[in-house]
UniProtKB/TrEMBL annotation:
Residues 169-297 form the Alcohol dehydrogenase-like C-terminal domain. Residues 9-122 form the Oxidoreductase N-terminal domain. InterPro entries: ADH-like_C, ADH_N_2, GroES-like_sf, MDR_fam, NAD(P)-bd_dom_sf. Keywords: Oxidoreductase. This is 2-alkenal reductase (NADP(+)-dependent)-like. One of its GO terms (molecular function) is 2-alkenal reductase [NAD(P)H] activity. The keyword Zinc does not apply. PANTHER family: NADP-DEPENDENT ALKENAL DOUBLE BOND REDUCTASE, PROSTAGLANDIN REDUCTASE.
Amino acid sequence: MAQVMSNKQVLLRDFVNGRSPTESDMYVTTNSISLKVPPQDSNTVLVKNLYLSCDPMMRFLIMKSDQRMSKYIYPSPGSPIRGYGVAKVLDSSHPEFKEGDLVWGLTKWEEYSLLPNPENLIKIHHTDVPLSYYTGILGMAGKTAYAGFFEVCRPKKGEYVFVSAASGAVGQLVGQFAKLAGCYVVGSAGSKEKVDLLKNKIGFDEAFNYKEEHDLDAALKRYFPQGIDVYFEHVGGKLLDAVLLNMREHGRMAMCGMISQYNLPEPQGIKNVMQIILKRLHIHGFTHRDYDHIVPEYYEFVLPYIRQGKLEYVEDIVEGLENGPAALVGLFTGRNVGKQVVALAGH
């Protein structure tokens, strides 16, 4: 007889469009689950979720839209929120996974998840580093930072690099990768605490609080009198417009996210697009899903730095699934400092 356990879940109340998500758009409930894959379910794994990742891309998973991203299964109202996480396999009818395997990838916001066709799960082989790192530096965020900076931007030693949302899951890594590549790097963030973190712990050459700058163009000219060679974009809107004015000729821009636009009824227009032509800019939009093939190369690059303590990775970990909704919506107000993670009970 299979053991039956209570299963706490975070469910989506309804789709959220044209405004910022709130905690009340989700609710916590508890049902029960058998800790055995049903006999009729082939290619299925049952996992115990250990860490859940809060990511800006989850905003798109809770909106009703015709422009949905492939590879994701979207929750419907009344079903669990979905996102990336770290989990332990409790039972499996899938030939690639067995009981006891540790995995990271797409899961559900609940204590236990039954995941059919888990092709999006990746086995964890390196357990001498914190498991929570697979929500960030060794997961989607790390792959995004590495691919965006080295594959898209192709930096050269001595270049000038600007990173927006620089204290977040991806930005803090881009800044450190830029320093490893011999670049000068400046980051923007939304509080004094985050600016201090970037300069004094993460190792940016300079950083500024964009909320204190009334003229973003002037701010960028102050920090980049020679102009910007590489811009790693997370914000969009007015900041992107100012960056276009300050790019150097043949500059490269890795377009990874535009968090300032996600909750607006209508996106803000960009006025300085002529700069793209005048400066012959290379602007490349991408997502981490374009670079699944580089994960082994990335691990070979990054794991020695982690083990030697030569990379800082700041995590903001909250305990308990019931605190997940507040952590997730806090991404859009800048409440988190570093990579936002939800640790589940018993992790």
